[in-house]
Amino acid sequence: MNRLSLTSLATLTGLFLSPATVTAQSMIEDTTPRKQALTTWGVQFEEFEYRYSDADEELVVWNGDLFYGTDELKARWLTTGEYAINEQAYETLENQFVAQTPISRFFDARAGIRIDTPEGQDRTYAVLGIAGLAPQWFEIDGSLYISDEGDASAEVDAEYELLLTNYWILSATLDGTIAFSDDREIGVGTGLVSTETGLRASYDLIDRTISPYVGVVHERQYGNTADLTEAGGGDPENWFAVIGMRMVF
To answer: 42-248 maps to which CATH number?
Structure first.
């Protein structure tokens, strides 16, 4: 009888206490402040370099990025350019202002505008693109552009980094541009416009925020674009020795 009484008492106690316990836990969970998305910002330059070509051409080249936002939505200012030292003129000057959001575990989508303001004709483009990490650890960046003149083009950039030691890194890059229509005012013909391939060896310094590097870059134009460049007295193919640094703040 005593054993039965104790068992019954335990059962009754459980029936009375379980709802109270659940209710208390629910109240604690409900009153716990929700975590807000962490806002971050930063500035980075993948390339900030001096180039010297086999035709004695000297350039200052940069490829930078300023971002602000959360993991779910970022505002980014992407800037790239080439400044010819001897001519004291911008060969290219491009700024993109885009919003970026994740679309998968490894890729983000972005949309915005691109503004080109070199020494020649200016252009404004609508931008739609993706960026992320492909299989085998290739960094991929692809964009589709529609200009204010109605011309369409696409650009794909790929980069692969090989870790030689904890500080020495060998980076291989490939950038390609395709135009779907002629834009002769800026020297662009239909088809494959140009490619740029590079190989750079860098050394990480100061907690990997600054990485000086040396390397080589090959630029080449194709098809109608190469013909337009030659007609204007330019060279559609160049090799460059480069020295520069990567910076992250």
So the answer is: 2.40.160.40
